[in-house]
Amino acid sequence: MVFMYLQNTIDTNFHDLQHFFISTLSGKYDGGIESFLKIIFVKSRKDCRKFKQNHLQQVRNMSVFIQQHNPMTGTIEWGIQPDDYDYKQEVARSAYADMLHDKERNDKYFEGLRRSVADLRMKGKEVHVLDIGTGTGLLSMMAVACGVDSVTACEAFHPVAECAKKVLTANGCAEKVHLIPKRSTEIEVGPGKDMERRANLLITEVFDTELIGEGGIETYKHAQENLLTPDALYVPSEATIYAQVVSSEKLQYWNRLSPVHRKVQGANNDDPLISIPQSVQECAGAAAVHDIQLSQVPQDWITKLSHPLKVFWFDWSGRKKKIDYEETSRVKFSSLAPGSCDAVLMWWDLKMDQKGDVMLSCAPYWAHPDLEGKEDGTSEHIPWRDHWMQAIYYLPPQMVSQVQEGKELTLFSAHDEYSLWFNVQENQDSAISEERPICTCGIHIVNSRSRLGQMNDPRRLNTYLRILEKHINSDSVCFVLGDGCLMAVAAAKLGARQVYVSESNDSTRRIMQEFVISNAVQDKVTVTHMNYADIPLEQVIAPGNITFSEPFFSTSLLPWHSLYCWYLRNSMLHLLAENALSMPKKMTVWGVPVQYRDLWKIRAPLHECNGFKMDIFDSLIETASDEADEKVEPHPLWEYPARALAKPQPLMTLDLGGAPPEKAITVSGSFSLTGTGTLNGMALWADWDMTSCPEDIISTGPVKPVVVNEYISWDVYTQQGVYLMKENPLIKPDLSQILQYYVSFCPNDGTVSFDFKFNKNI
Asked: Out of the domains of life, which is the source (predicted)?
């Protein structure tokens, strides 16, 4: 269950999760299982990635032989990797490059530092800087450029600390920065120790989407008490957290399952087909924050019930207001419109200097201070960043009630050392929960936000129901292939003789059984823990004449990983009738050359940053990525705008009706690049042809026709494949430019491989 949740929540792979879980249980990670599980079930995908960075060195020795789960074939495979594979993988996937491409962040840190140094000089003081979590050493070099008297920097992530030494040397700062390869909480101060004296200027970046999720509260409190002078200045000096209450049925698709209805011809109302168990209806939801690019959420999805509200303020010096590990606030507001209190949107800003003249905001474009008073502002008009996004917090179900415009409400906000949570109170006498929401039904633990969205998606549901209504009858013996597929219940209620569901995971099996009981189809649906391959024919009512897969498997990261349904079906032929109907029938991989507006930055070299050379860091990232990363990685592209530079094309089609081929399949072809812009990547997805009828195709790609030179509208409930080009040629329509593609499918392990080559002309 832990593996399933993490794999669907953070950008990582299965063997990493095994390393962490095994090392925790065996005591190799000294944080303990309680701390590990707290990170897993409370933090977001990027926070978990940071957690991995901080503790990776403790499991390094486990990476010689690795056990990997193959999402395509469902098998566990052993592989051999170099001793430093985990290090290289972590360096490649770290967020350092993303942060360093954030020009506004860098410029405002530099300006906040200049002003704070000037403030200390005005008072006739020496300036001794402490840089906590220096990363590449950029902030320390900025401090040197400001003419400070001394700089002490610490960095606990060993490979980056080694890189920082080289970067400091290349920029002539090695003798001016004392680099300590430790956590700040391990630093000792005094003659002959790590720091000779306490610092009087702290510069650090220990923030995440929730502001405090990287342990910033403890970092600041420890520094105040042990590493800094009582009158020390801080860059940034303050932070404010904002929250906005909204009504949104669409946002709730990512959080709460709704009953499934089918359209009945001639009827005024839809027919309820799948009801939701009471335990799921009453569940408070997931504790994990939903970090998201809010500026990409369609505005017609959201009805704003409040203005942005200031809910927490942090004075990092602790002099104006003590920093508390736990805190609550209550802010009254009048509802701006009628609607239900569905969610709270959250972001924060930083005061980078001491007076508040230099501000850095993470607000979405409609609330961004730089666009105040500008009605035509969009996400293109504010800085892009992926290391700090915005967040959605879903309100408990008892608070999802209708309110009228002008209704007086109170927003309750709370935080502990790492996380935030919210609730809405309708009046002072109404009781609300002040506790962090915790999933009690299991749905939010075993399913990602994207998966919950798929299970609520009308486009998918209508297609599935139309297909099942067409093919299910009283003679149907149906085997459902996939994880948590509620279409098993639908097939039973549509009249199937018997439906079989294999759920090897205890949690998903329990949830499926609850749905079966809640919908009174216990006599029609058999939920088993056994793999279909291990079930003898004598244990089923009759040979199956239908296999159905959405397809979805919790282990699938890329769209074509769900080809596992093909391998699964061919492992259970002994349970099927000779002419059994198989759905889906085909899978086609599609691609389109694109110009990513911002996403290219996560892999692009820096060369220089604020006047400092970064070639050494570029080389470290590139080498690590080449050795540890896949060429194609998953991203929810609806959050990352991309313009089409050519028409989409099918790259490879696999017929799923028979057995996988014995030999590898390789196809090649080319795109004619007719758009205008910079070619910096490919967008890849899979279309699942369920029945050979065009209207029965389930696509994980664009939801509207793709127009060259225009932004693509993507399916918001799946991740697509992203291939980033190392060279980024300029594309012009008057040139005969093509992009060649090479796609291979290896049936032995189910892998699909891609390569792309740009040619200036034919």
From this structure: Eukaryota
CA 37 vs CA 5, 23, 44: distances in Å? 11, 13, 13
- Asked if residues 533 and 462 have their Cβ atoms less than 8 Å apart, the reply is no
Is 295:301 a contact under the CB 8 Å cutoff? no
Residue with tokens 């609520």: 456
**CA of 519: how far to CAs of 259, 488, 549, 725, in Å?**
11, 11, 20, 50
DSSP code for 189: B
Say what the pLDDT of residue 271 is. 80
The percent helix, strand, coil of the chain (3-state, each to 5) is: 30, 30, 40
Tokens of 280: 């799921």
- What pLDDT digit, counting tens, does each position of 350-377 carry? 999 999 999 999 999 999 999 988 888 8
d(CA 294, CA 364): 6
- Size of the chain, expressed as the number of residues it contains: 762
> Rounded to 5 degrees, what are φ and ψ at 322?
-65, 140
Ramachandran area for residue 392 (φ above 0: left; ψ -120 to 50: alpha; else beta)? beta
Q: What pLDDT, on a 0 to 100 scale, did the predictor assign at position 226?
A: 97
Longest pairwise C-alpha distance within the chain: 90
- C-alpha–C-alpha distance, residues 171 and 178, integer Å: 14
Helix 458-471 / helix 449-456 crossing angle, nearest 10 deg? 50
Position 36 scores a pLDDT of: 40
Residue 147: which region, alpha, beta or left (left: phi > 0; alpha: psi -120 to 50)? left
Low-confidence ranges of the chain (pLDDT < 70): 1-97, 266-268, 399-400, 628, 761-762
Rama region for 520: left / alpha / beta (φ>0; ψ in -120 to 50; rest): left
Q: How far is CA 421 from the centre of its chain?
A: 19
Catalytic residue positions? 205, 214
| Residue 343 near residue 423 (C-beta atoms within 8 A) | no
CB-based contact 128:200 (threshold 8 Å): yes
Range 362-366, long-range pairs (CB < 8 A, 24+ positions) = 362/388, 362/389, 362/390, 363/242, 363/308, 363/390, 364/294, 364/295, 364/297, 364/390, 365/295, 366/295, 366/299
Task: List the one residue out of 635, 640, 642 whose CA is nearest residue 719.
Answer: 635
Q: What is the pLDDT of residue 49?
A: 40
Quick check: 227 and 199 in contact, CB under 8 A? yes
Instruction: Round to whole Å and give the CA distance between 407 and 319.
Output: 38
Q: Coil, strand or helix: which one is 741?
A: strand
- Residue 99's H or E segment, with its range, is helix 96-100
Residue with tokens 């190392």: 726
Supply 411's token pair: 């927003």
Q: How far apart are CA 256 and CA 43, in angstroms?
A: 19
The pLDDT tens digits of the residues spanning 303-345 come to: 999 999 999 999 999 999 999 999 999 999 999 999 999 999 9
Strand blocks (E) in 16-99: 65-69, 76-80
Chain-centre distance for alpha carbon 355? 35
Question: Cα separations (Å) of 323 from 33, 116, 222, 556?
Answer: 27, 21, 11, 42
Q: Is 713 helix (H, G, I), strand (E, B) or coil?
A: coil
For 715: left if phi > 0, alpha if psi spans -120 to 50, otherwise beta; the answer is beta
pLDDT for 90 equals 61
Cβ-contact 701, 590 below 8 angstroms = yes
What does the block give as tokens for 612? 């400092």
* Cβ atoms of 647 and 727 closer than 8 Å: no
Question: Which position has the token pair 């399949």?
Answer: 665
End-to-end CA distance of the chain: 52
